[in-house]
Amino acid sequence: MEIEKLVNKNVGLILGISLFTSVQFAQAYDPVKGLTVEAWNLACTTADSKECWDHKENSGDARKTVQYIPLTPEDVTKKWKLCVSFPHLKDSWWLAQNYGIIDEARRLGVQVNLVEAGGYANPDTQISQVESCVANGAEAVIMAAISREGAVGLVDEIRSKGIPVIDYINGVATKTDAKSLASYVAMGFVTCDFVAQNHPKGSGKVKAAWLPGPPGAGWVMAGERGCKKAFSTSDVELIHGGFGDTGKEVQFKLVEDVIQAHSSGADTDLDYIIGNAPAIEGAVRVKKDRGFKNLKLIAWYITPGMDMAIKRGQVEGAPSDQPVVSARIAVDQAVRILEGKEFATGGAPAFGDEARISEHIGPKLSMVAKDEYEAFDKSTTLAPKDWKPVFQVE
Prior knowledge:
11 helices; alpha/beta; Rossmann fold; 35% helix; 19 strands; four-stranded parallel sheet
């Protein structure tokens, strides 16, 4: 895969460290064979700090690629009660997470109460939902925090009661019991390096609008760091299109605003728009309506809409962070902790507290380009076509 070779060659040169071991295509889920994942050598479960993520032992070349073998139903001795908190369920990326959580909980025979806060503008709603969930008997919490800093008090309080917390997807700036989330620095880098490779220094200036997602979300800020690093040695000028909730109306407005600011009639001086999936859905429509034939679109994660747009050639490509994998692993981690069982990978010393054994897992990244679409296995990235949101497993 040419993209893979180029990314692997240049990532270390640009960042001084490698962000990831390799870019691989997703694999179908088989609980007997397990899942190919990355395991951090120092688990970032003390405060989810930049220092941990950037530590040389956690660079892509240093991270271990392992086969994660989940528990079997026979390993589970009790119908454990899990509380799962999402920022929202407004888009299909979170629907894929919902599928992974629910399907894995059903497989293991545990209970789930899944709550969603209605959007990234509602951190207080998330906190009150989780508090209610815990008050109703949750024995472990899997939390995708809306605010990395704002959720600290809640997480500390929950853990003080002896209830384990799995830091999931977004990151939280305090101690947790395990982590199931990818390096979004690496993901942002892979996405923007996909563009940067075509525009090295001295090749001629181009402009790329960047619409990452909600303000303050850990995954957004990490992705932005990676994207800026990818462009730092290229001729790509990054134009920030603004932060916003990933609801379609908010993102469509941001797309329209950045295009309006850089267009005149049937012409635009933008060469690329790179952004979250709802933003790129809006950009596909605006590009068609305005007739911008040379404007190229790249998403920085995959949804069913992006999957179809890549297949049709409307979007150049997008990386997969295999959200279904992250969801399954978060459930498995929670149940292992409740059962008193060893982590699937054996665990790792926590960064800054190496006497404490924890676990930090992230799925392997895969770049899906339109000219290599046929090699893409959707099973760890998208929910089944007929999947509807499920909030309870009894």
